[in-house]
Amino acid sequence: MLYTMKDLLKVAKENQFAVPAFNICSYDMMKAIMEEVEAQNAPVILEIHPDEIAYLNDEFVAAAKDYAHNSKVPVVIHMDHGGSVKDVMRAIRNGYTSVMIDASTQTFEDNMSLTKEVVKLAHDVNVSVEAELGTIGNNGSAEGGSANIIYTDPNQAEEFVKETGIDTLAVAIGTAHGLYPKDMTPKLNIELLKELNERIDIPFVLHGGSGNPDSEVSEAVKYGVAKVNLSSDLKSVFFDALREVLTKNPKMYEPGDVFPEANDKVKEVVKHKLHVLNTIGKAELY
Ligand SMILES: [Zn+2]
Question: In CA terms, which of 25, 30, 65, 209 is 20 to 30 Å from 158?
Fold first, then answer.
């Protein structure tokens, strides 16, 4: 079933679970993710970044839509970190049911005005909108982010949500894109999240969810986080496994031999994340 983000996350927030948004950069990864969420009867968000669609091409979205339509679990197809109206229109034309407009590095006023414009365009055709306030950190991921995390300001957030009419808000509470260096343990600002949750009704999104301690991510789900973005955790195990398989078997070339181990690694991570986010079995609520 194909869902909008608004309809998907309403149920998640009410029932205190979060839906993982997995960045998909290949057909094999999408296949592995869909097989595992179906096995766990869990809803899912298939998330595609503009850099990923630049590689995959628009035709890829048709395959994602086919998966969604034929699946027994709720699926949202979401554009991650759209940077312009052009990105948003391309996503809507391709059939995404949710888009993110990220103008978080612009001034508060400019962020608000671009987000408002996108909400008008997207809501007219029943597409949900995510925006961001504050900045997510960057650990060298292609998604970028700021060298210094600027935490979301609760006063600004309240005004921003009211004025723009967005469906979900990406909050900056201490996460960073990419994988954390070995000597760094990320720390989420749960007190800030609690305050945001008391003042704002719409579901929150946690970006850069890879590598954060499971206990902190589970805690965040109790205070309004209903979507957690996961990219590096999946890509790293997928490509590590491929590297290993091909190194061990230099003459191997049939896809049915090359990919299964990598797909299984992806499935393990998907299952673990569904467990952390309390998503297992939740498709039955839709
Ligand atoms: Zn992000």
Answer: 209
**Alpha carbon of 168 to ligand 1 centroid (Å):** 13
CA distance 85 to 101: 8
The count of C-alpha atoms lying within 13 angstroms of the C-alpha of 178, restricted to the half-sphere facing its C-beta, is 16
Which residues are annotated as catalytic? 80
Taking the CA atoms of residue 202, residue 206, residue 212 and residue 217 in that order, the dihedral angle to the nearest 10 degrees is 20
Q: List, in order of start, the domains of the chain with CATH numbers.
A: 5-285 (3.20.20.70)
Beta-strand pair 98-101/128-133: parallel
Question: Which distant-in-sequence residues (6+ apart) come within 8 Å of 248 by Cβ?
Answer: none
- Residue 41 C-alpha to ligand 1 middle, in angstroms? 26
The predicted structure's pLDDT at residue 123 = 98
- Tell me the residue type at 164: T
What global pTM score does this model have?
Answer: 0.94
